[in-house]
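Final report, Chapter 2: Outcomes

The project's central promise was a pipeline that accepts a single protein chain and returns its three-dimensional structure in a standardized token representation, suitable for archiving and comparison. That pipeline is now operational. To close this chapter, we reproduce one record exactly as it appears in the project archive, with the input sequence first and the structure output second.
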Amino acid sequence: MTTIRGWCPGALRPMAGGDGLILRIRPHAGRLSVAQAQGIADLAAQHGNGWIDLGSRASLQLRGIAADGLPQVHARLSALGLLDPDETSEARRNILTTPVWDGPETPALVAALETALAAAPPLPPKFGFAVDTGPWAVLGGASADIRIERGTDGLILRADGMERGEAVTPASAAHRAVGLAHWFAARRGAETRMAPLIASGATPPRAATLPPLTGPAPQPGPTAQGLCLALPFGQMAADTLHMLAVAPLRLTPWRSVIVEGVAQLPAHPGLIADPADPRLRVVACTGAPGCAAASVATRALALRLAPLVPPGGLLHVSGCAKGCAHPRAAPLTLTGRAGRFDLIRGGTAADPPGATDLAADTLPQLIRGHLAPRL
């Protein structure tokens, strides 16, 4: 086992955090069985800090793992079917799965892609795939470089950054996706993601004439697949995950879960069932002291500011310029720097700020008096 400090931890490649090791778990097809959900909750309580984080690619993170507890954690994950055979296989299996699938097609496509990726070329750490083959495609705003999507008349394969894709079949989709990965690897130069390569003028040699059939992403509340519940800041306590494990869970890239086949559960303060809840308008990373890179506490501040963010707005509170919780631009971002905050409008946590050196106690009035109407 190699401990890696970086942006892409795994279960076999943990990353050092401020409170111990961080392990990222990628469930197959973004789905947890009841036993897997219960097992992860037990691991978080017994070996971690008692919390589970849900990431923007529908992966789970355990934090605060002690190095001497790793063998027990790995053994349990292996028994649950959640551990890859080696670090290379783990890194390669970067697949985001739509949570709104019905029937066997989508799980079968994910399984075929996992197998086909054994023949994939070396790819940058964040390079990933999406299987977006529910009744309509919902993952267009989520990070992925090669997308298998629902089209009007069947499946399409689309390079991120292109508006259209080529027709594929369930039998050919995985193989064609890996072929597109080979094209990217041969031409990428210094690029690490597909969209910038496409923006530079490179075009895959494919008949990309078909647009995806897009539709709305699931919101908190009842859905056709089950009850969708969002997690404040994408985080839940171990006992909350135990409570949810009454049925299989589908993970979403919007930091929510769908409890399969369930229409209602008792209200819980750690779960959001109302799409108008103001906590859905703020995004915040772990912050200090849990993250060694952060110089400011983030989530308590974000909760204070959430009611001031108008419907349709988004506030990103980042402990540092890395912007892990929301790598893309937000209408308003507060970035921690040397114990205070910089303010960025319409950018990422690393973009040039419009105001600097702001104290946390000045931010509510700043939001209320000047920023909220323009978010």
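Archive annotation: Residues 1-6 have pLDDT under 50 and may be disordered.
This record, like all others produced under the grant, will remain available to the consortium after the project formally closes.
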